[in-house]
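Lab notebook, bench 4. The sequencing result for the construct came back, and we need a structural model before the next group meeting so we can plan mutations. Quick request posted to the team channel:

Model the 3D structure of this chain.
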Amino acid sequence: MKAEFTILEEHVGAENRKLVAGEEAGKKAAEFFDSVGTGYYHIDLHPSSQGDNYIDFGSLPFQIPLGALLPQRMDNLLPANKNIGTTHITNGCYRLHPVEWSIGEAVGSLIAFAQKKKTWPRAVRDNKNLLEEFQNWIRSQGLETHWPENNL
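Done. Here's the predicted structure in token form:
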């Protein structure tokens, strides 16, 4: 899926985040205005040809941006787990079961919210008021959209 937003290594990878954001800001993953969930797992890759068949490097506790769940050109299709807007590298930390479950929970909630509001899912991200209402609603349902400061 080609998503509205693609999560890059510089958003969640510990080393690349410091290179892009600086030493202090690089201690935290990128903040996404449209966060609909959280996750945390190191980036592990399983290359299938030649050499090391397991590569593992650090990531930071991250958010799940709504833009990574919205296809660019389709309105009636949403991802369910591993097929969100990530690169091959960042998929290494978004593909783990707890994160997949959070993605599924966010997508299911988005569908219910959009139907209730009689709008398309992408309109929720595009409209600041709808996005804020959606994020407040999912938080009231127990979904975390940000990591607590004292747990980082």
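Residues 12 and 70 are 19 Å apart (CA to CA).
Will bring this to the meeting.
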